[in-house]
Every structure is written in C-alpha cells, then in structure tokens.
C-alpha cells in the first residue's frame, strides 16, 4: 500500500543533490571552528536573514533553548504566545535549562496583540520577576501554519525596544512565511534580535537548524550549545545538505502551499469534517472533526489503515502537513480516500 505521510514536513528525505554534497563535503573539527562547510552554512544562513553571525545546531528545539539561555538569567520572565512551540512542545526546557518563568499571551491563531504584549511586561517592583525576552513564532505551528503579518512583528518589536528587551523568533518555518508574504526572510528578521530556523522541515535537509543574530550573541550561544552537548565534530557531512537546502529548496515551498490549499478545498465538502480553505496560508491544513460518531484519534487510526498518516492535534482536530515528498496526484488520491470513509 502506498503511504502518504502528512504527519509533518520533518519526514522529508534529502534530495539526490544533498546526498552528493554530503558525500563530497569538506570537513574539519567544528568545535575548533575548523569545518569549512559548517562555516559556509552559518554565513549563508546569517546573510539570508540579514544578521551578522550564525550557529549550526542539531535541532530547532536546541536552537530555541540555546537562544533563551543566551538572552536570560535564572528567575527572569519570558513572554510567549500561549500555543507557541517553545511553550507547548519543548518538554518544559525553558524552566529546566534557563530557569525562567513563562508568561503567556493568547494570540489569534498565534498572532499576539502588541498592546497585550506590552501589558505583560513587568514594571519595576521588588516582588516581580524581570521580563527579559519576548518570543514570536512565524509561521505559527499550532495556529495551523498561520503567517504572522509583518506589521504585527514590527509593532511587537517596537514595544520590545521601548522597554529595551530583545525579541527572539522561532522561525522554524520562516521561509514558508516569506514565500507567502512575497518578502525576503531578512525583511521579517529586521524585527527580531535572534532567529532560529530549521533546515530539516520543508527545506528537506536530513538534520539541523540555524540560530542567527549579532556576533556577540552567537559567541554566547556557541558556549551554551557546547554545554548542552551540541558541539559537533566533522559535521560538514550534514551541514552540506543544509547548504543545498538554502540554495535550492526555498522557492519550492510554494508548491507545498498550493497543495495544502488544494487539499483543503477538496476536503471542505466532506460532511464529517469542517475545514476552511481561506485559513490555509502555508503548508498546514487543520481539520475539525465534526462527525458525531468519530473522534480525531479514531479518524487518525482509520486513515492510517488506508495509508494516510496524520496527527491528531486535539480530541477534535487533525493536522495535515504538505511537503516535498507529497505531490499533487497524492493530494487528489488522499481527497478520494477521505471521501470514501463514511461516519
Ligand atoms: N515541530 C514539529 C513537532 O515538534 C511538533 C512538527 O512536526 O511540527 N519550532 C517550531 C515552530 C516547530 O514546529 C518545531 C518542530 C520546532 C521548533 C522544533 O524543531 P525540531 O523538531 O528540529 O527540534
């Protein structure tokens, strides 16, 4: 049976060009900063985002956590969106690794109101923790791949600067946002002090993320990466795939967005589901399961048996993510499979 895997864009496999680059990559010991391919990738990533320096990390989670460790000290407070990946999906790392307290602001599909962000900043008071950092996420994962508009990022950045606070962006899928907006990623990154973005999602590299920011910030982050055991050796072997990802895979993301839209349009007529194609901005489709005799978990299992892999994201919602390894024909086939199920 053919498997169509909508669980995440993390399931993408490397392209032949990536495998070839990996095979021939020039390497050195990156803890000594002697791996030329890692240096190339870090510089390329920093330049694309309009920042001074970059740091290659094994995962997006480590990139976000290292950023918070670098910006904060124990007992500080960090402002985050209530459904953000850093708060929701990073195993409580902010509390354990940085020793910070989290203050969440509920957004509209992940988009926070700048005035509410401003109200969440602590005034000076002997009883209060000190606010040390504001975090954004673009595109927003639990917001269903929602793009945070540029104006919103700018407004929050202006609030942050009024209080002399840094802004970190979880830009795991920042290129999906930039493609949707028709803007360079550096335009979005202007309203941030550090950005983490992933090479191993829609860009299809097998491993890796980059953290970018000012040179002094990256110097601190490099040390925390080492502390977490993320100092790697001849890692040009995988950084080379990241270089190919950044050079060849960004514009292709538009296909994933078109496929997600096609999927949502095809699924909107199905009686046991509710889906709004106008909400699909990038590569995610969120289905609300409305059939009275089926839960999201049960539907996930049923689809699994039909060769469609997906993730239930709550008791009534399912997330489908489009990516390089799902083509238009497979989208159409998936719609037929959904239509064939009766509840
Ligand atoms: N997201 C994964 C899961 O962790 C949920 C997915 O399948 O979407 N920031 C954002 C916005 C993310 O979506 C993810 C991964 C990360 C950070 C973490 O990246 P990794 O998986 O490389 O640690």
From TrEMBL:
Keyword Manganese set for record: no
UniProt keyword list: Lyase, Pyridoxal phosphate
InterPro entries named among the record's database cross-references: ArAA_b-elim_lyase/Thr_aldolase, Low_specificity_L-TA-like, PyrdxlP-dep_Trfase, PyrdxlP-dep_Trfase_major, PyrdxlP-dep_Trfase_small
Domain (Aromatic amino acid beta-eliminating lyase/threonine aldolase): residue spans on this chain: 5-288
Top-level class of the enzyme under EC nomenclature: lyase
Record-linked CDD domains: TA_like
Cofactor names: pyridoxal 5'-phosphate
EC number: 4.1.2.49
Gene Ontology CC: cytosol
Post-translational modification N6-(pyridoxal phosphate)lysine, affected residues: 201
The keyword Ribonucleoprotein belongs to this UniProt entry's keyword annotation: no
Family according to the record: Belongs to the threonine aldolase family.
PANTHER family: L-THREONINE ALDOLASE, L-THREONINE ALDOLASE-RELATED
Name this polypeptide is given: L-allo-threonine aldolase
Native source species: Psychracetigena formicireducens
Gene coding for it: ltaA
């Amino acid at each position: 049976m053919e498997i169509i895997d909508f669980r995440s864009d993390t399931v993408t496999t490397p392209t032949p060009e990536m495998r070839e680059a990996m095979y021939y990559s020039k390497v050195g010991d990156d803890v000594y900063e002697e791996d030329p391919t890692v240096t190339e990738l870090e510089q390329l990533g920093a330049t694309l985002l309009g920042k001074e320096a970059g740091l290659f990390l094994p995962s997006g989670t480590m990139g976000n956590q290292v950023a918070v460790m670098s910006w904060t000290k124990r007992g500080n407070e960090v402002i985050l969106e209530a459904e953000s990946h850093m708060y929701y999906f990073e195993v409580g790392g902010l509390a354990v690794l940085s020793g910070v307290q989290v203050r969440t602001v509920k957004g509209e599909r992940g988009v926070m109101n700048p005035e509410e962000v401003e109200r969440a900043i602590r005034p000076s008071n002997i009883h209060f923790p000190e606010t040390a950092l504001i975090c954004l996420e673009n595109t927003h994962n639990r917001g269903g791949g929602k793009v945070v508009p540029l104006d919103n990022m700018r407004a929050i950045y202006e609030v942050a600067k009024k209080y002399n606070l840094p802004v970190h962006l979880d830009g795991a899928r920042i290129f999906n946002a930039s493609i949707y907006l028709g803007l360079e990623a550096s335009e979005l990154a202007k309203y941030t002090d550090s950005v983490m973005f992933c090479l191993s999602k829609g860009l299809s590299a097998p491993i890796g993320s980059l953290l970018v920011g000012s040179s002094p910030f990256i110097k601190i982050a490099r040390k925390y990466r080492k502390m977490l055991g993320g100092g790697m050796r001849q890692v040009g072997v995988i950084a080379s795939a990241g270089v190919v990802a950044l050079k060849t895979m960004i514009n292709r993301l538009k296909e994933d967005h078109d496929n997600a839209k096609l999927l949502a349009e095809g699924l909107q007529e199905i009686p046991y589901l509710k889906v709004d194609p106008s909400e699909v901005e990038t590569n995610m489709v969120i289905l609300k399961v409305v059939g009275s005799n089926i839960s999201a978990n049960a539907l996930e299992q049923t689809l699994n048996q039909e060769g469609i892999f997906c993730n239930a994201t709550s008791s009534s919602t399912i997330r489908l993510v489009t990516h390089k390894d799902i083509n238009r024909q497979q989208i159409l086939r998936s719609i037929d499979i959904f239509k064939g199920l009766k509840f």
